[in-house]
Amino acid sequence: MSLKSTFSAATALALITAGGAFADAHSATITIATVNNGDMIRMQGYTDQFTAETGIAVEWVTLEENVLRQRVTTDITTKGGQFDIMTIGMYETPIWGANDWLVPLNDLSAEYDVDDILPAMRNGLSHDGTLYAAPFYGESSMVMYRTDLMEAAGLEMPTAPTWQFIREAAAAMDDPENEINGICLRGKAGWGEGGAFITVTGNSFGARWFDEEWNAQFDQPEWANALNFYVNLMNDYGPEGYATNGFNENLSLFNQGKCGMWIDATVAASFVTGADSTVADSVGFALAPNAEGVEKRANWLWAWALAIPAGTQQEAEAKQFIEWATGKAYIELVAANEGWANVPPGARTSLYETPEYQAVPFAKMTLDSINAADPTNPTVDPVPYVGIQFVAIPEFAGMATEVSQEFSAAYAGQQTVEEALAKAQAITTEVMEAAGYR
């Protein structure tokens, strides 16, 4: 008997024993806020099956990433009560859990197997050892590249490339006459959009947000080196308007065959090799790059996870959905219908022990990238914070959004790199002084 059929039978028996909830379809409705990426949209397509199994109806509020962050943050801090489940990540979860804003997930069923969650994901979604959000998928970041263009350029992608090689390859693959950009990268404002990418790029050049005394570091040469390298790379070999491109925009460009390389979330691998990609048969993978002589790579650690805001009137139903959507049975459901390459990656140890998934071309690189990420030691020089593409303090989201806006203005040619860094230094210094860190 499969995991899927076991789950369904057990759920049906429990509901019938409790009073025949199957006869009373849609006995409850939960509202879920989520991000508009492919895996979450795919999950929505299976929601009818969850409703059929449980009698619980689901209403979706699907939002662009920056809007989602704003909406759920406003709702949780004002106790608005709009949502029974929120899609959040490793930045919000420990902070909100510490504030008692989330329902602890410490009573999930034995069948759910919490211990199967990858340690990196479980630790990042916990506070003081208590899990507050369940990962729908986990990710790091890596290089995705056109193997056909790389071969035509006479180059071979290393397993662990440097930024210097990335620039050389971008120059070789750039073909404006045929609408092929050498490289596509995020420039869109937002701390979790372009802000995340430039932060890990900074890490890979030896930069950091703060020193051990919480002094802002945007006036240091490592940041100037990182930001100048990025701007020059993208101005020379990136797409027009890259200052407004985020994950979804670059995914579309890559799938249309308009990018020689793309460095972004490992979760994109199933989409660039899927049915909607015009270059699916010519995609290779490598670790995120580092600058020569710097040990840190430009890879992050993240999970899009499902959490329950404290005060919901549908806690039991919300937990049922979380167990369904982030459990082993859902993985088998997607694999059976769409193939193993399309299951949510990066969340469960058992997935990477499954022979069928081990045969997926990007599985090992995804796991290697996740395992290489160290949020407790994210930079070359010591820092007082935890987090790779973010700083795990409540003040970060606001000030990092402002900093990312200044950087995007530099990408768009509206100010110089030096001006953007000076403003970033002023923004972060003012916030940290007002918050009492210094």
Automatic annotation (TrEMBL):
Q: Which InterPro entries match?
A: Bact_solute-bd_prot1, SBP
Q: Where in the cell is it found?
A: Periplasm
One cellular component term from this protein's GO annotations in UniProt: periplasmic space
| Chief localization | periplasm
Keyword Signal tagged: yes
Task: Kindly state which keywords UniProt assigns to this record, in alphabetical order.
Answer: Signal
A Pfam family annotated for this chain is SBP_bac_1
Q: Where is the signal peptide?
A: 1-23
Q: Which SUPFAM superfamilies match?
A: Periplasmic binding protein-like II
**Family annotation (PANTHER family):** ARABINOSE-BINDING PROTEIN-RELATED, DIACETYLCHITOBIOSE BINDING PROTEIN DASA
Its family? Belongs to the bacterial solute-binding protein 1 family.
Protein name per Swiss-Prot or TrEMBL: Putative ABC transporter-binding protein
To which species is this protein native? Boseongicola aestuarii
Q: What is the lineage of its organism?
A: Bacteria, Pseudomonadati, Pseudomonadota, Alphaproteobacteria, Rhodobacterales
